[in-house]
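From the pipeline queue, job 12 of 40. The input is one protein chain; the requested action is below.

Action: predict structure.
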Amino acid sequence: MRSLKNRVAIVTGASSPYGMGRAAALRLAREGAQVAVVDLVTDGAGRRALDKVAAEIEALGVGSMALACDVGEADQVAHCVAQVIGELGGVDILFNNAGVGAAGLCEETPLETFDRMYRVNTRGTIAFTKQVIVTMKQRGGGSIINNASIGGLYGDAHFSAYDASKFAVVGFTRAVALELGRYNIRVNAICPGLVDTEMGQTMLGYFAELSGDTPQAVRADMTNSVALGRWGKVEEIAAVVAFLAGDEASYITGIAMPVAGGYPPAL
């Protein structure tokens, strides 16, 4: 049974071949949703990557759109959402997944890096959320899912800029859930832990350089902190997104759900 049939979804940050956005977009499509995939496009390779995801979705028998958008630019976000509404009729599901990462000690991290984290991770989430509220009200409800990262729940040394932006996403999620519940619009955050993505590999490289160990040794050490003893798969994150998007999660709103295999140990 295709539980999301006739629904329209937007997934931001969807073009990375090993990313959570692409995995979530494909999972929502398999559940029957039409999916507009959105990402920053700076060159031909980026355009081809985004178009490829849209083609993969259409191959599953549902409609798709591939839209270039800088989530930190409010005008581009408004135009993007208007295109989806015009082409697909409205928006029922929004997965605010677009994000950037940065590592470094706070005292060595330029304020410009903090600004960039906020611009993409936080402001981009806010901008897209604001733009879909009217159409979701008109359609009788909807589901907004924000990718907050486990960094949005637990501070981590060397990630002050990133974690600050993600903590803000969690606070935003909880506040807006209270505002929109009366309209049957649910707003939740997911908080993935160690997941095999390009950002995860970049993080390994940073700590390998810092420690002088190999990325493989760093990965093994970090894996020891995960209760389930392994890193997560993007498909496992996508499954949670699909759950929160669907009717089986109809009484869930305002949460920040760890999807981290029991990482960090404080969980």
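Job complete. The mean pLDDT is 96.
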